[in-house]
Design brief:
Layout: H1 2-19, E1 24-29, E2 44-49, E3 52-60, E4 64-73, E5 79-83, E6 88-92, E7 99-108, H2 111-116, E8 124-133, E9 136-141, E10 144-150, E11 153-154, H3 163-174, E12 178-182, E13 196-202, E14 205-206, H4 207-213, E15 218-219, H5 229-242, E16 255-259, E17 268-274, E18 280-285, E19 300-301, E20 307-313, E21 321-331, E22 334-344
Parallel strand pairs: 10-13
Antiparallel strand pairs: 1-2, 3-4, 4-7, 5-6, 8-9, 8-12, 9-10, 11-15, 12-13, 13-14, 16-17, 17-20, 18-19, 18-21, 21-22
Helix pairs in contact: 4-5
Protein backbone atom coordinates (compact mmCIF):
# COMPACT_ATOMS: atom_id res chain seq x y z
CA UNK A 1 0.00 0.00 0.00
CA UNK A 2 2.85 2.39 0.87
CA UNK A 3 4.54 1.62 -2.46
CA UNK A 4 1.37 2.59 -4.37
CA UNK A 5 1.18 5.89 -2.49
CA UNK A 6 4.85 6.53 -3.13
CA UNK A 7 4.41 5.84 -6.86
CA UNK A 8 1.47 8.24 -6.99
CA UNK A 9 3.57 10.88 -5.25
CA UNK A 10 6.45 10.53 -7.74
CA UNK A 11 4.03 10.73 -10.67
CA UNK A 12 2.60 13.98 -9.27
CA UNK A 13 6.08 15.45 -8.87
CA UNK A 14 7.01 14.62 -12.50
CA UNK A 15 3.77 16.17 -13.75
CA UNK A 16 4.33 19.36 -11.76
CA UNK A 17 7.90 19.82 -13.01
CA UNK A 18 6.85 19.18 -16.64
CA UNK A 19 4.19 21.93 -16.48
CA UNK A 20 6.65 24.58 -15.15
CA UNK A 21 9.73 24.55 -17.38
CA UNK A 22 10.52 28.29 -16.81
CA UNK A 23 10.19 28.32 -13.04
CA UNK A 24 12.36 28.03 -9.97
CA UNK A 25 11.46 25.12 -7.69
CA UNK A 26 11.81 25.44 -3.92
CA UNK A 27 11.14 22.53 -1.54
CA UNK A 28 9.89 23.46 1.93
CA UNK A 29 9.63 20.52 4.34
CA UNK A 30 7.62 20.03 7.50
CA UNK A 31 7.35 17.26 10.04
CA UNK A 32 3.70 16.42 10.83
CA UNK A 33 2.99 13.83 13.50
CA UNK A 34 1.68 11.21 11.09
CA UNK A 35 4.65 11.35 8.68
CA UNK A 36 5.92 8.47 6.63
CA UNK A 37 8.64 6.24 7.89
CA UNK A 38 12.23 7.46 7.69
CA UNK A 39 12.77 5.40 4.58
CA UNK A 40 10.25 7.56 2.61
CA UNK A 41 10.34 11.28 1.53
CA UNK A 42 9.46 13.84 4.21
CA UNK A 43 6.04 15.53 3.98
CA UNK A 44 5.94 19.13 2.69
CA UNK A 45 5.05 21.48 -0.17
CA UNK A 46 6.62 22.10 -3.57
CA UNK A 47 6.34 25.83 -4.46
CA UNK A 48 6.92 27.11 -8.01
CA UNK A 49 8.21 30.71 -8.29
CA UNK A 50 7.76 32.86 -11.47
CA UNK A 51 10.74 34.55 -13.17
CA UNK A 52 10.76 38.25 -14.12
CA UNK A 53 13.15 39.68 -16.74
CA UNK A 54 13.76 43.43 -17.33
CA UNK A 55 15.77 44.85 -20.23
CA UNK A 56 16.67 48.42 -21.14
CA UNK A 57 17.83 49.43 -24.61
CA UNK A 58 18.99 52.88 -25.78
CA UNK A 59 19.73 53.69 -29.41
CA UNK A 60 21.36 57.06 -30.23
CA UNK A 61 22.42 58.87 -33.39
CA UNK A 62 23.13 62.52 -34.30
CA UNK A 63 19.45 63.23 -34.84
CA UNK A 64 17.44 60.36 -33.20
CA UNK A 65 17.48 59.21 -29.57
CA UNK A 66 15.32 56.16 -28.69
CA UNK A 67 14.99 54.57 -25.26
CA UNK A 68 13.04 51.32 -24.70
CA UNK A 69 12.39 49.68 -21.32
CA UNK A 70 10.81 46.20 -21.39
CA UNK A 71 9.67 44.22 -18.36
CA UNK A 72 8.40 40.64 -18.84
CA UNK A 73 6.91 38.31 -16.28
CA UNK A 74 7.18 34.74 -17.56
CA UNK A 75 4.05 32.51 -17.50
CA UNK A 76 3.34 31.10 -14.07
CA UNK A 77 1.96 27.60 -13.59
CA UNK A 78 1.90 27.28 -9.82
CA UNK A 79 1.67 23.66 -8.81
CA UNK A 80 1.42 22.69 -5.18
CA UNK A 81 1.90 19.06 -4.16
CA UNK A 82 1.29 18.16 -0.56
CA UNK A 83 2.57 14.90 0.90
CA UNK A 84 0.79 13.35 3.86
CA UNK A 85 0.95 10.00 5.55
CA UNK A 86 -2.26 8.81 3.94
CA UNK A 87 -2.62 10.60 0.53
CA UNK A 88 -0.63 11.88 -2.41
CA UNK A 89 -2.69 14.79 -3.85
CA UNK A 90 -1.71 17.29 -6.59
CA UNK A 91 -3.39 20.69 -7.00
CA UNK A 92 -2.62 22.66 -10.21
CA UNK A 93 -3.53 26.35 -10.25
CA UNK A 94 -4.15 28.16 -13.62
CA UNK A 95 -1.18 30.01 -15.12
CA UNK A 96 -1.19 33.80 -14.70
CA UNK A 97 -0.97 35.85 -17.88
CA UNK A 98 2.29 37.33 -19.16
CA UNK A 99 2.64 41.08 -18.61
CA UNK A 100 4.82 43.10 -20.98
CA UNK A 101 5.30 46.86 -20.64
CA UNK A 102 7.15 48.76 -23.35
CA UNK A 103 7.94 52.48 -23.28
CA UNK A 104 9.59 54.19 -26.25
CA UNK A 105 10.51 57.83 -26.81
CA UNK A 106 11.83 59.09 -30.13
CA UNK A 107 13.12 62.64 -30.71
CA UNK A 108 13.95 63.79 -34.24
CA UNK A 109 15.91 67.04 -34.58
CA UNK A 110 16.13 69.22 -37.65
CA UNK A 111 19.25 71.21 -38.51
CA UNK A 112 17.79 74.32 -36.91
CA UNK A 113 16.90 72.44 -33.73
CA UNK A 114 20.42 71.02 -33.47
CA UNK A 115 21.80 74.55 -33.62
CA UNK A 116 19.94 75.46 -30.47
CA UNK A 117 20.60 72.21 -28.66
CA UNK A 118 23.99 71.17 -27.40
CA UNK A 119 25.18 67.80 -28.75
CA UNK A 120 25.70 65.15 -26.02
CA UNK A 121 29.32 65.98 -25.21
CA UNK A 122 31.06 67.09 -22.05
CA UNK A 123 34.75 67.62 -22.77
CA UNK A 124 35.55 70.26 -20.17
CA UNK A 125 34.11 73.19 -18.28
CA UNK A 126 35.38 76.75 -18.00
CA UNK A 127 34.35 80.03 -16.37
CA UNK A 128 34.00 82.90 -18.86
CA UNK A 129 35.85 85.95 -17.53
CA UNK A 130 35.97 88.28 -20.56
CA UNK A 131 34.29 88.79 -23.93
CA UNK A 132 36.85 89.85 -26.54
CA UNK A 133 34.57 89.93 -29.60
CA UNK A 134 31.88 87.87 -31.28
CA UNK A 135 33.97 84.70 -31.60
CA UNK A 136 36.67 85.02 -28.94
CA UNK A 137 36.50 84.83 -25.14
CA UNK A 138 38.76 84.49 -22.15
CA UNK A 139 38.05 81.70 -19.67
CA UNK A 140 39.39 80.37 -16.41
CA UNK A 141 40.37 76.67 -16.52
CA UNK A 142 41.74 75.14 -13.31
CA UNK A 143 42.88 78.57 -12.15
CA UNK A 144 44.58 79.44 -15.47
CA UNK A 145 43.37 82.16 -17.87
CA UNK A 146 43.07 80.95 -21.46
CA UNK A 147 41.85 82.59 -24.68
CA UNK A 148 39.30 80.54 -26.62
CA UNK A 149 38.60 81.06 -30.33
CA UNK A 150 35.29 79.63 -31.59
CA UNK A 151 35.84 77.36 -34.60
CA UNK A 152 33.76 76.65 -37.69
CA UNK A 153 32.57 80.26 -38.00
CA UNK A 154 33.76 83.87 -38.08
CA UNK A 155 32.16 87.08 -36.79
CA UNK A 156 32.89 90.64 -38.04
CA UNK A 157 36.16 92.25 -36.98
CA UNK A 158 36.59 95.61 -35.26
CA UNK A 159 35.17 98.39 -37.44
CA UNK A 160 33.15 96.03 -39.63
CA UNK A 161 29.36 96.03 -39.84
CA UNK A 162 27.75 94.05 -37.00
CA UNK A 163 31.02 93.84 -35.04
CA UNK A 164 29.44 95.33 -31.94
CA UNK A 165 26.14 93.49 -32.44
CA UNK A 166 27.93 90.13 -32.71
CA UNK A 167 30.06 90.93 -29.66
CA UNK A 168 26.98 91.92 -27.66
CA UNK A 169 25.15 88.71 -28.66
CA UNK A 170 28.11 86.59 -27.65
CA UNK A 171 28.25 88.44 -24.32
CA UNK A 172 24.52 87.97 -23.79
CA UNK A 173 24.90 84.20 -24.13
CA UNK A 174 28.10 83.40 -22.22
CA UNK A 175 29.42 86.37 -20.19
CA UNK A 176 30.30 85.32 -16.64
CA UNK A 177 28.85 81.84 -17.12
CA UNK A 178 30.15 78.28 -16.94
CA UNK A 179 30.54 76.91 -20.49
CA UNK A 180 31.39 73.50 -21.88
CA UNK A 181 34.27 73.28 -24.37
CA UNK A 182 34.58 70.67 -27.11
CA UNK A 183 37.83 70.10 -29.00
CA UNK A 184 37.82 68.99 -32.64
CA UNK A 185 41.27 68.02 -33.99
CA UNK A 186 43.56 70.99 -33.23
CA UNK A 187 44.40 72.07 -29.71
CA UNK A 188 45.45 75.69 -30.48
CA UNK A 189 45.81 78.03 -33.47
CA UNK A 190 49.06 79.37 -34.92
CA UNK A 191 48.89 82.90 -33.50
CA UNK A 192 51.86 84.40 -31.63
CA UNK A 193 49.86 83.84 -28.45
CA UNK A 194 48.10 80.53 -29.25
CA UNK A 195 44.37 80.37 -28.55
CA UNK A 196 42.40 77.24 -27.69
CA UNK A 197 40.23 76.17 -30.65
CA UNK A 198 36.87 74.98 -29.36
CA UNK A 199 33.14 74.49 -29.89
CA UNK A 200 31.35 76.21 -27.01
CA UNK A 201 28.10 75.26 -25.26
CA UNK A 202 26.05 77.04 -22.62
CA UNK A 203 23.18 74.99 -21.22
CA UNK A 204 21.32 73.65 -24.27
CA UNK A 205 22.78 76.25 -26.66
CA UNK A 206 25.52 75.44 -29.18
CA UNK A 207 27.03 78.94 -29.22
CA UNK A 208 29.07 78.68 -32.46
CA UNK A 209 26.03 77.45 -34.38
CA UNK A 210 23.64 79.95 -32.79
CA UNK A 211 25.75 82.91 -33.95
CA UNK A 212 25.67 81.56 -37.51
CA UNK A 213 21.93 80.83 -37.34
CA UNK A 214 21.12 84.41 -36.30
CA UNK A 215 23.33 85.99 -38.99
CA UNK A 216 26.02 87.28 -36.63
CA UNK A 217 28.69 84.97 -38.11
CA UNK A 218 29.68 83.35 -41.39
CA UNK A 219 30.23 79.61 -41.70
CA UNK A 220 34.01 79.42 -42.09
CA UNK A 221 35.71 75.99 -42.10
CA UNK A 222 39.19 75.79 -40.59
CA UNK A 223 40.63 72.38 -41.64
CA UNK A 224 41.21 69.98 -40.01
CA UNK A 225 38.57 71.21 -37.53
CA UNK A 226 35.49 70.60 -39.69
CA UNK A 227 33.29 68.34 -37.55
CA UNK A 228 30.21 70.59 -37.88
CA UNK A 229 30.99 72.14 -41.30
CA UNK A 230 27.81 70.78 -42.87
CA UNK A 231 25.64 72.05 -40.00
CA UNK A 232 27.15 75.55 -40.11
CA UNK A 233 26.71 75.75 -43.89
CA UNK A 234 23.03 74.77 -43.59
CA UNK A 235 22.43 77.37 -40.88
CA UNK A 236 24.14 80.11 -42.90
CA UNK A 237 21.88 79.35 -45.87
CA UNK A 238 18.84 79.57 -43.60
CA UNK A 239 20.03 82.96 -42.24
CA UNK A 240 20.55 84.24 -45.78
CA UNK A 241 17.09 83.11 -46.83
CA UNK A 242 15.59 84.88 -43.81
CA UNK A 243 17.82 87.96 -44.34
CA UNK A 244 19.04 87.88 -40.75
CA UNK A 245 21.94 89.90 -39.34
CA UNK A 246 24.70 90.45 -41.87
CA UNK A 247 22.46 89.04 -44.59
CA UNK A 248 19.86 91.81 -44.23
CA UNK A 249 19.70 94.15 -47.26
CA UNK A 250 21.87 97.25 -46.76
CA UNK A 251 20.83 100.71 -47.90
CA UNK A 252 24.40 102.02 -47.64
CA UNK A 253 27.01 100.39 -49.87
CA UNK A 254 30.81 100.48 -49.68
CA UNK A 255 33.40 99.24 -52.14
CA UNK A 256 37.20 99.26 -51.92
CA UNK A 257 38.25 100.36 -55.40
CA UNK A 258 42.04 100.01 -55.09
CA UNK A 259 44.90 99.57 -52.61
CA UNK A 260 48.67 99.70 -53.08
CA UNK A 261 50.03 96.16 -52.73
CA UNK A 262 52.74 95.12 -52.46
CA UNK A 263 54.47 98.14 -51.00
CA UNK A 264 57.99 98.47 -49.65
CA UNK A 265 58.69 99.40 -46.04
CA UNK A 266 59.33 103.16 -45.93
CA UNK A 267 57.26 103.81 -49.09
CA UNK A 268 53.77 105.30 -49.41
CA UNK A 269 50.55 103.34 -49.78
CA UNK A 270 47.16 104.46 -51.08
CA UNK A 271 43.60 103.21 -50.78
CA UNK A 272 40.47 104.41 -52.61
CA UNK A 273 36.93 103.50 -51.51
CA UNK A 274 33.52 104.35 -52.94
CA UNK A 275 30.26 104.82 -51.08
CA UNK A 276 27.41 107.36 -51.08
CA UNK A 277 28.28 111.08 -51.30
CA UNK A 278 28.99 112.78 -47.96
CA UNK A 279 29.19 109.48 -46.06
CA UNK A 280 31.61 109.69 -43.13
CA UNK A 281 34.52 107.32 -43.76
CA UNK A 282 37.29 105.95 -41.56
CA UNK A 283 40.26 103.64 -42.24
CA UNK A 284 42.16 101.37 -39.83
CA UNK A 285 45.44 99.68 -40.77
CA UNK A 286 46.29 96.74 -38.51
CA UNK A 287 49.94 95.93 -37.75
CA UNK A 288 51.34 92.89 -35.91
CA UNK A 289 50.49 94.08 -32.42
CA UNK A 290 48.74 97.43 -32.87
CA UNK A 291 47.09 99.76 -35.40
CA UNK A 292 48.98 102.26 -37.54
CA UNK A 293 49.03 105.88 -36.41
CA UNK A 294 50.55 107.17 -39.64
CA UNK A 295 49.63 110.64 -40.80
CA UNK A 296 46.94 110.59 -43.48
CA UNK A 297 44.82 107.86 -41.90
CA UNK A 298 42.17 110.33 -40.75
CA UNK A 299 38.38 110.42 -40.84
CA UNK A 300 36.92 112.08 -43.93
CA UNK A 301 33.69 112.50 -45.88
CA UNK A 302 33.14 110.99 -49.31
CA UNK A 303 33.12 113.51 -52.15
CA UNK A 304 30.24 114.23 -54.54
CA UNK A 305 31.08 111.04 -56.44
CA UNK A 306 31.06 109.03 -53.22
CA UNK A 307 34.83 108.51 -53.25
CA UNK A 308 37.19 108.65 -50.25
CA UNK A 309 40.95 108.28 -50.57
CA UNK A 310 43.85 107.90 -48.09
CA UNK A 311 47.62 108.05 -48.60
CA UNK A 312 50.08 107.20 -45.80
CA UNK A 313 53.70 106.26 -45.33
CA UNK A 314 54.60 102.73 -44.26
CA UNK A 315 57.15 102.64 -41.44
CA UNK A 316 60.65 101.74 -42.59
CA UNK A 317 61.02 99.20 -39.79
CA UNK A 318 57.66 97.52 -40.38
CA UNK A 319 58.03 93.73 -40.53
CA UNK A 320 57.42 92.20 -43.93
CA UNK A 321 54.11 90.37 -44.29
CA UNK A 322 50.40 90.71 -45.01
CA UNK A 323 48.35 93.28 -43.09
CA UNK A 324 44.62 93.94 -42.76
CA UNK A 325 42.85 97.21 -43.60
CA UNK A 326 39.25 97.96 -42.54
CA UNK A 327 37.28 100.84 -44.11
CA UNK A 328 33.97 101.98 -42.58
CA UNK A 329 31.34 104.34 -43.98
CA UNK A 330 28.40 105.84 -42.08
CA UNK A 331 25.38 107.84 -43.18
CA UNK A 332 22.02 108.62 -41.50
CA UNK A 333 22.65 106.19 -38.64
CA UNK A 334 23.65 103.28 -40.90
CA UNK A 335 27.19 101.93 -41.08
CA UNK A 336 28.88 99.48 -43.41
CA UNK A 337 32.42 98.11 -43.47
CA UNK A 338 34.76 96.36 -45.88
CA UNK A 339 38.04 94.55 -45.23
CA UNK A 340 41.04 94.19 -47.52
CA UNK A 341 44.70 93.22 -47.15
CA UNK A 342 48.01 94.61 -48.42
CA UNK A 343 51.53 93.20 -48.41
CA UNK A 344 54.62 94.97 -47.11
CA UNK A 345 57.95 93.86 -48.62
Amino acid sequence: MKNKKLNALLLSLILAITLCTSCTIVLVTTSPANSLTTSNPSPGWITLTPVTVSTTKTVSSSSIITTTVKTTTLPISTTKTKITATTARTTIEPAKSTTTTTHSTTVTASATTIASTAPPVTVGQAQVTRIIDGDTIEVLISGKTCTVRYIGMDTPETGETLFQAATDKNSEMVSGKIVRLEKDVSEVDKMDNPRLLRYVYIGDIFVNAELVRLGYARATPYPPDVKYESLFSTLENEAKAAQLGMWAPALLSLQIVSVTSPVKAGASANLVAKTKPNAECTITVYLKSDTSGAAGLTKKNADSDGKASWTWKVGSSTTHGEYKIVVTAGLNGETVSQTTYFTIQ
